[in-house]
Design goal:
165 residues; alpha+beta; Alpha-Beta Plaits; four-stranded antiparallel beta sheet; three-stranded mixed beta sheet; 9 strands
Length: 165
């Protein structure tokens, strides 16, 4: 049976024809857009459910994320980071004071000092992270941007996943 499924890393719809399944014994299937490797067993296991199928994030490398958040002060950034660590939503926070942000807000160009947080987490926590940051943050619209980690020190990535489980 032909199978359509969504890549767990990027959400792109992928298609694999029935006659291509036997080739997966030699070479794993890769998402055409982000190149995530998806094992044949998982494709076969989920093919019976119909399509499109979203495979579990844990099966593909790249579940780890870095979340960029700016804050008005170093103290605010530390308070937010501490709360997120206690709730195990992040494994680590780097706080970079005194970044300069130039942006447009409510029709006016602003040039302000801010503090940047680099938060290490996993995709499955992102919705909850956004919710908690918005509740803890002083900004009306805080910057909360996640970027996937495509490669890294495997021991560090294992530690990151362990600390956020």
């Amino acid at each position: 049976m032909d199978t359509v499924f969504l890549c767990p890393r990027c959400g792109t719809q992928n298609f694999i024809a029935k006659e291509r399944f036997e080739l997966l014994d030699e070479v794993p299937f890769r998402c055409w857009r982000c190149d995530a490797s998806i094992p044949k067993g998982l494709i076969l296991e989920h093919a019976a459910r119909g399509s499109p199928v979203l495979l579990e994030e844990e099966t593909v490398m790249g579940e780890e994320i870095v979340v960029y958040v700016t804050a008005g002060s170093e103290e605010e950034a530390a308070r937010i980071a501490q709360s997120l660590l206690e709730e195990r939503l992040i494994a680590c926070a780097n706080i970079v004071p005194k970044v300069r942000s130039i942006y447009r807000w409510k029709g006016k160009v602003c040039d302000e000092p801010e503090t940047l947080m680099l938060l290490k987490s996993v995709k499955k926590h992102f919705s909850r992270l956004v919710e908690r940051i918005r509740a803890l943050h002083s900004y009306e619209v805080p910057e909360i941007i996640a970027c996937g980690i495509s490669a890294g020190n495997q021991a560090y990535l294992d530690w990151l996943r362990e600390e956020t489980s």
